Amino acid sequence: MFFHPMDFIVLIAFGLSLWAQFKVKGNFKKWSEVHASSGMTGEQAARELLNRQGLTSVPVELVPGTLSDHYDPIQRVVRLSEPVYYGTSISALSVACHEVGHAIQHKVSYPMLVTRHRLFPITNLASGVAPFLLLGGFFFHATSLIGLGILFFSVAVAFQLITLPVEFNASARAKALMVSEGFIRQDEEQGVNKVLGAAALTYVAAALMALFELIKYVLIFFQSNDED
C-alpha cells in the first residue's frame, strides 16, 4: 500500500545525499591538510572579514563538534567548529568565510535569506505535523488528511528549495571576498571551490529528496481520489 514507483527516485536522491556527505567530509579533510598562504586561522579570517564589511558587532564564537559551523541570525553570531576556528587551512578559511557570507546577507537583507527566516518557524511546525497527517491519511484511507499532510509537507519542501540560493550566494560572496581581501591567492581558489562545492551539494541532495517525496505523495493522493 505504501510502495510507489517514485520510491526508486527517492532512494536515488537519498543515495546522492549520502554521497554528498561523503564528499563534504572527504574534501574538508583533504584541504584541511593544505595551509592557506595567508597563515590566517578561520577565526581570524572571519573576524577580519566581518570588520571589513562593517559588521564589527557580530562576534565569532567557538562551537563544539566538527562541521557544526553556522551563522545564527537570531543572536547574530558566527559560530565555528574547533577545526575551523583554530585551523589555518584552505578548508578552515573557506568554511569560516562562507558563514560570514550569511552575516553579510543578513546585513544587506538578501531577499531569499529574509524569506527563509520568515518561513523557519512555520517550517518547524509543518515538519512536525506533516508525518502524522500523512500516516493517518494512509492508515485510515482518508484523502483529506493526506491532502492536508501534503500541504504542510510542501512548506518544508519550499524551505529546502529556498535554502539553495541562500547557500550558493553565501559561497559566491565568500570566494570573491577571500581573493579580493587577500586571504588566499588565486591559485588556491581550486581548494575553496572543492570545499564549498561539496557542501552545496548536500543542500541540493536534501532538496531533491524532499521534492521527490512530495511528488510521490501528490501522485498517491490523486490515485486515491481516482479509486474513490
Please characterize this protein's 3D structure:
It comes from Tumebacillus lipolyticus. With 228 residues, the protein is mostly helical. The chain has one domain (6-227). It has helices at residues 6-32, 42-52, 82-85, 90-108, 111-139, 143-180, 189-227; strands spanning 60-63, 70-72, 77-81. The protein has a three-stranded mixed beta sheet with strand order 1-3-2. A hairpin with a 4-residue loop joins β2 and β3.
Q: Approximately how much beta-strand content do the residues carry?
A: 5-15%
Low-confidence stretches: none
The Cα radius of gyration reads 20 Å
Q: Please give the share of residues in helix.
A: over 70%
Number of strands: 3
Could you spell the SSE succession in H and E letters?
HHEEEHHHHH
Helix tally? 7
How does the major sheet shape up? 3 strands, mixed
Shape: elongated
Count of discrete domains:
1
Order of strands, widest sheet: 1-3-2
Structural class: mainly alpha
Distance between the termini: 15 Å
Keywords: Membrane, Transmembrane, Transmembrane helix
Protein name: Zinc metallopeptidase
Pfam family, one: Zn_peptidase_2
Task: Give a short overview.
Keywords: Membrane, Transmembrane, Transmembrane helix. The protein is mainly alpha-helical.
Task: Kindly list the characteristics that best describe this protein.
228 residues, mainly alpha
